[in-house]
Amino acid sequence: MSNRVLISSTNNPQIKNLALLQKKAKARKEQGLFVVEGIKMLKEAMDAGLLNKIYMSESFYHDKPEASSIFKEYEYEIVTDSVLKQVSDTMTPQGIMGTVNMPTYDINRMLDKDDAFILLLEDIRDPGNLGTIIRTAEGAGVTGIILNASCADILQPKVVRSTMGSIYRVPFYEEADFIGALSWLRLEGFKLFAAHLSGISYDTEGSFLGRCGILIGNEAAGLSWEAASLANNLIKIPMEGKVESLNAAVASAILMYEVARQRRIMKN
Fold first, then answer.
1. CB-facing half-sphere around the CA of 62: CA atoms within 13 A
2. Closest CA to 145 of 122, 113, 129, 161
3. Residues of the chain with pLDDT under 70
4. Phi and psi of 14, rounded to 5°?
5. pTM of the entire structure?
6. Which helix or strand (DSSP H or E) is residue 136 part of?
7. In the CATH hierarchy, which top-level class contains the domain 107-267?
8. Can you tell me whether residue 154 is helix, strand or coil?
9. How far apart are alpha carbons 162 and 253 in whole angstroms?
10. How far is residue 44's CA from residue 165's CA, in Å, rounded to a whole number?
11. CATH homologous superfamily of domain 13-101?
């Protein structure tokens, strides 16, 4: 470290840019970068070929040589513990963070499968919900996720943390003309199912085979009328008691795994 300058001020241009990337979606889009924290998320970014640059606290660099050596093939900086803590988005920083290149996906390749299974998200605003949905989507075998422009920014820190690494592996696409995209999917032969309080039970065996999409709406208001009207079927999750609806992430998980279950049965 003798030849390396220790970054000790939050006025350092790199640190100011890290803070900007943490806070502003516009900066993330303009630079094609987002910030992740912790060894696990950085290692997974490295495995995905997306890791850009590393920032290690002074104590992390000295106290965890085996961990820090993993990332030394990348460009890295050493930062004082206090500076790293100030730029971190977590209450208890692990001492390492980095910038990651924004993954890009071709929507046509995402959809070009005979059994493509798409999750369609409209106005999901809670970062924790969105991150959990992405993580669950990977587990359920979703082909890709299409979000409208009013969803929480998929690359903001809380969303990224909640994905637990799935952000690197689940194809996603933000669609400015979400309603137009739904119409296009119908023309392409996708069968669209909208989670809706006015829906009917979804548990007909074999209903989710072939190319299909599940629509999930805003946590409080649900799907817009325009989006729901473009679905082939309005469906709801059967519930006991006086419960009318479920958390968006929970409802998404139930429906995604029902799709996965039906498809496994067909394959077997």
1. 9
2. 122
3. 1-3, 201-206, 268
4. -65, -40
5. 0.92
6. helix 127-140
7. alpha beta
8. coil
9. 14
10. 6
11. Ribosomal protein L30/S12 (3.30.1330.30)
